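In the previous lecture we treated proteins in isolation. Real proteins rarely work alone, and many bind small molecules. This record shows how such a complex is specified: first the sequence, then the SMILES for zinc ion.
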Amino acid sequence: MVTIKPNAEALEILNSVEDLELLFIVSKLVITESDINGLDLDSGSILVEKYDHVECERCRKYFEEKDIVKISLEEEHNICVTCNEIIK
Ligand SMILES: [Zn+2]
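The predicted 3D structure, ligand included, written as tokens:
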């Protein structure tokens, strides 16, 4: 999980991107106006943390349990909603 407190210039760029999680290749990305770790830097701040949720066995991204579909083939598999639509 990546949390970004961007400066004004970076915020404008980030807002122009449709899928930031795809761009950053992360499971979860949050843009905040709050200080990260008490830092208020002119350049902005970034916090990278482990996103400890359920892994989709197809795309390998992590999701909250509510966004996972359990599919049964020979055994049960965890698949995200997006991948489930693709493999139907
Ligand atoms: Zn998936």
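Summary for your notes: Residues 56, 58-59, 61, 80, 82-83 surround zinc ion (CB under 6 Å). The chain has a mean pLDDT of 92.
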